[in-house]
From TrEMBL:
Residues 42-69 form a coiled coil. InterPro entries: Bac_GSPG_pilin, N_methyl_site, Pilin-like. It comes from the Bacteria. It comes from Pseudoduganella flava. This is General secretion pathway protein G. GO terms for biological process: protein secretion by the type II secretion system. It holds the Pfam family N_methyl.
Length: 163
C-alpha cells in the first residue's frame, strides 16, 4: 500500500477549528480595510468638489472678463456677472462678433458630489450675489460666487460651505 493514500474510510479535509480561524482572520482584515475604503471615497468626493468649485468660479470670472471687454451687453447698474449658472451653459450673444456668435463658458454645470444625485446639478450649489457680504451670502440678481450647500467639515478641518 502506498504511503500517500489515506487509510480506507478516512478522507482529508479541514476541521471546524481551521475554518473558524480562517473566518476570523478574514473578518479582521475586512474590518480594517472598510474604514480605509470609506476614507478613499470621501477623499475622492472632496477632490471632485474642489474641481467643480474651481470650474464654476473660473467660468464666472471669464463671463465677467467678457463683460468688461464689451463682448456681453449689460445695463449700467449691472455688476457684469451672469444672472444665473444656466447662462454659462446656454451662452450669450457676443455683441462684437459680426456673425452673431455666442459665447459659452461651461459645457454643463458641475454636480456637487455631496448633493443628492437625483437632483439637478444646479441645486447642489448656493449662489452669492455681488452685492451680498461674504459671511452672509444671498442670492439676488447675479451670481458672483458659488459655495457647496453641504453640511459637514472636510478632512482639512474647513466646513464645506466655506470652500
Amino acid at each position: 500500500m502506498s504511503a500517500c493514500r489515506p487509510a480506507s474510510g478516512m478522507t482529508r479535509g479541514f476541521t471546524i477549528v481551521e475554518l473558524l480561524v480562517t473566518i476570523v482572520i478574514v473578518s479582521v482584515l475586512a474590518s480594517a480595510a472598510l474604514p480605509m475604503a470609506e476614507l478613499a471615497v470621501r477623499r475622492n468626493k472632496e477632490q471632485e468638489l474642489r474641481r467643480s468649485l474651481r470650474e464654476i468660479r473660473e467660468a464666472l470670472d471669464n463671463y465677467k472678463l467678457a463683460t468688461d471687454e464689451g463682448r456681453i451687453k449689460k445695463s449700467a447698474d449691472a455688476s457684469g456677472y451672469p444672472p444665473s449658472l444656466e447662462v454659462l451653459v446656454e451662452g450669450v450673444e457676443d455683441i462684437r462678433s459680426a456673425e452673431q456668435r455666442r459665447l459659452f463658458f461651461l459645457r454643463r454645470i458641475p454636480r456637487n458630489p455631496f448633493a443628492d444625485g437625483k437632483a439637478p446639478p444646479n441645486d447642489g450649489w448656493g449662489k452669492r450675489s455681488y452685492s451680498s457680504r461674504h459671511d452672509d451670502p444671498k442670492e439676488e440678481s447675479d451670481v458672483y460666487d458659488v459655495y457647496a450647500q453641504t453640511e459637514g467639515t472636510g478632512m482639512n478641518g474647513i466646513p464645506y460651505r466655506e470652500w
